[in-house]
Sequence to fold (424 residues):
Amino acid sequence: MIKLYVLIVALVVSVAPIMVQAQEAAQGENAQAAADETLLTTAELENLVAPVALYPDTLLIQILVGATNPMEIVKADRLLAVNEGEDPETVKVAVEAEQWDESVEVLAVAFPEVIADMALHIEWTEAMGDAMLAQSDDVMAAVQTMRTQAVNNGALVSGDEQLVEVTDTEEVIIQPADPEIVYVPQYDSQVVYADNSNLVGDALTAGLIAFGTFTVIDAIFDDDDDWNDYWGCRNCGGWGGGPIYRNPDIDIDIDGNVNIGNTIGSGNIGDRRPDGGWKPNDNRKKDARDKISKKRGDDGKTKLPVNKTDSRSDALRSKLSASSGAPDISRPGAKPRPEAIRKTKGEIVDRPKVNRPKASAAVKQKPKKPAVKKPATTKKHVSKATASKKKSKPKATKKRSSGPKAKKAANRGKASGKKMKRKG
Fold:
């Protein structure tokens, strides 16, 4: 009898830890499931990424990672405004002196109009940053969903400005047709994603993507700068479960090979993975998840601004456009109303001539566009075309947007072509 009692006790002692571990594991899974329910849903993420999902991979990465520091985005926009009209090299030095995250720095130096837009829609930018910190894999999946939708609609195709490739694993990759010239696409999310039921509003038409703004990379980053070849990186997008390469501290072959260097460090917004990729800092990830959770309303809808709504400036331009009949050229495809033109034709009066400074040679010139074979819009592998070498290029970024903010961005985006100084 004593032996039986001892045996029972021994069994209880040996099984108890296993039961405790199983119970803890179940509790952990339940807690994770509950936490996931409070994060942004698939539909909410698709609305969130829709305005930028069709940007070239390497530019998109800088926007997504830079958004995790919304305060730095605002500061960068203010710094560029203060330094308006300054020599481009002076602007670079001023930006680097702030020691911001590299994604914010490169956007401020090479894509000031993107910084201006992110600052103008700062609530959306902050929501994007929270989503990247809390659920970056879900964000990247949402980007792929929207790109696939645009491909199927015939809106996203290869052209003189960009190459669109659908891989065998169904990832949609967008690269500049020439790695030295990066175009910033302009499109209406209600148009290019016409068949996506998650997006609010009626579709107007399909297949409208404009390319009014571009940056000449070699006019800003010379051959000795790591950022020079970064824009041709095919494997930087984090597709297929790979890491997000948003830092040029890696050797990049623009033909598609990525060789990771030995320098692995950590930044102020994310850690470098052992393979050189970016991932959110654990503490910031937790804070972002908590923030998203607290923004979930009683009705189950998120209170975060996942829709990039028009700013006050947008609303003002729309009002003026409607009253005057003049097109709002900041929006792709905008056309004047014929009846409004007829109404205002007789109201034009003579105005005194104003002496305006001549446009710089850099603005007048346009980069020669390489001939690019357009891929089919169906889901199949599309071979990347080889972009021809540009013989002559303008020496600054070119802006074709309207409005005071766009004009300021145009002045700030000029580059001297000198070597960009890097942080120590």
Notes: The chain is about 40% helix and 10% strand. The longest strand covers residues 209-216. Residues 358 and 364 are 10 Å apart (CA to CA). Strands lie at 162-166, 172-176, 181-187, 209-216, 251-252, 258-259, 270-272, 278-280.
